[in-house]
Amino acid sequence: MLVSLKISDEVYEKYAEYDNSNPRLAMEQQLNRFKDISPKDRDLIIPSKARQALEVLLGRQIETPEDLVKVVDVMVKIKVGNVEIPLTEGQMKRLLSQAAFWHQPIEKFTTDKVKAGIVQALGV
């Protein structure tokens, strides 16, 4: 099906940067990529640089939105047996910041901190 779209010169030039030989193909590919997402939805698109920074902070690759949800779900609580202890936003920020500072995956850094806290509190 052929459709005629009105776009600004600025948008066309941007797609020409992506594919100088065929900006229309670049637009077609982008529209096809997002065909299942309604323009009315409040979806979050994470640009490559931000995704890469997240992956460094998390210590793992994020391939899908579901991957990100799983990682964040695990990160926002500590679970011991059947007991779940939710972390505050401030605690999460501090853990992420320190893990990044020490260049450690968040899981390892958090595990080490929790173990050290238990040893200090319980003496074991």
Descriptive terms for the model:
6 helices, two-stranded antiparallel sheet, 2 strands, 124 residues, mainly alpha
Topology:
Blueprint: H1 9-18, H2 23-33, H3 48-58, H4 65-75, E1 77-80, E2 83-86, H5 89-101, H6 106-122
Antiparallel strand pairs: 1-2
Helix pairs in contact: 1-2
Question: What features would you describe in this structure?
Answer:
The protein is mainly α. The protein has a domain at 64-122. Helix content is 59%, strand content 6%. The N and C termini lie far apart (69 Å). The model has no long low-confidence stretch (mean pLDDT 88).
| Share of residues in strands | 5-15%
* Main sheet characteristics: 2 strands, antiparallel
Number of strands: 2
Strand order of the largest sheet: 1-2
Q: What class would the helix/strand composition place it in?
A: mainly alpha
Evaluate the radius of gyration. Answer: 22 Å
- Give the number of helices: 6
Shape: elongated
- The rounded distance between the terminal residues' Cα atoms is 69 Å
Helix content: 55-70%
Topology as H/E string?
Answer: HHHHEEHH
Give a quick rundown of the structure.
This protein is mainly α and 124 residues long.
